[in-house]
Amino acid sequence: MTIGSAAGHIPAGAYDDLLARVLPVAQTTPEWSPGDGPMPALFVSHGAPPTLDDPIWLDDLHRWGRSLPRPRAIVIVSAHWENAPAAMSGSAAGTPLLYDFGGFHPRYYTLKYDTPDATDLARRLASLLGATGEVHRSTERGLDHGAFVPLMAMYPAADVPVVQLSMPSLEPEALLRLGTRLRPLRDEGILLIGSGFMTHSFAVMRQPELVAHAAAFDEWAADAVSRGDIDSLLDFRRKAPGVRIAHPTSDHFVPLLLAIGAADDPESATSVIDRFVLGNSTRSLQLL
What are phi and psi of 260, to 5 degrees? Predict the structure, then answer.
């Protein structure tokens, strides 16, 4: 059976319901102005296409977006794109999405998120990160699901220019440095997002008795972030409990280091979303 095709289930039906409720007012959030101060840096646990079937998760993401000034633009780094040197996604209006998943109902491969032209943002990124070929432009690459799934709920009107930036490495230090280099964009009303997952374990989904490992990791990470213990977070492979189960690979955790690097005060982190789904922590953080 194709995932999302159970009898009576409408794939992405919760997302359809969200759009019906919020689109009439989606563009009424005041746009950022300098008087608002810097935009925050976010770490978002992005989920997968079935997130669009979870009304609680979608509402949490949407309320989060509504709680912020509408950003002038968004730069997002997703767990699903590693490329060195750093690369940018296509910036043309309506660049097609990248459906980087398999085994789901056909409807998930027809979803659209037609963001506006982001050429100015791409130029600003290229200028900030280096104009000597340090940043590659992948003009045909659209947003992957680590980017478009949360943004579809946070900014459902698709009215904010978005550029996705690749992870240049899975080394935590590299993501921390990248976040630091992107930090000035926050003063320009640009929202910076590291999109991953606080725990990312298929083993826990298959064997629920392993959830204690994910919970131990989540508690450790939340504590380390609250104390601004960047050294421990950088060394999470050796210091975190349950890490082999919670994160068999590093790709979904290291975007957190991008958000921390982009923050003025790492200890400012607050948990905006804090819920376990299918044995994994969806903890998502906002930093100033």
Answer: -65, -45
Please report, for residues 66, 157, 250, 283, the alpha-carbon distance to residue 62 in angstroms, rounded to integers and kept in the order given: 6, 11, 27, 15
pTM: 0.95
Pairing of strands 136-137, 87-88: parallel
Distance CA 33, CA 36 (A): 6
Counting as low any pLDDT under 70, the low residues of the chain are 1-8, 131-133
**Angle between helix 13-22 and helix 145-154 axes, rounded to 10 deg:** 40
The structure tokens 């997952």 sit at 197
The CA distance from 27 to 30, in Å, is: 8
Q: How far apart are CA 81 and CA 182, in angstroms?
A: 17
Dihedral sign from CA coordinates of 96, 277, 193, 102: negative
Quote the DSSP letter at residue 49: G
Query: For residues 80 and 197, what is the distance between their CA atoms, to the nearest angstrom?
Result: 11
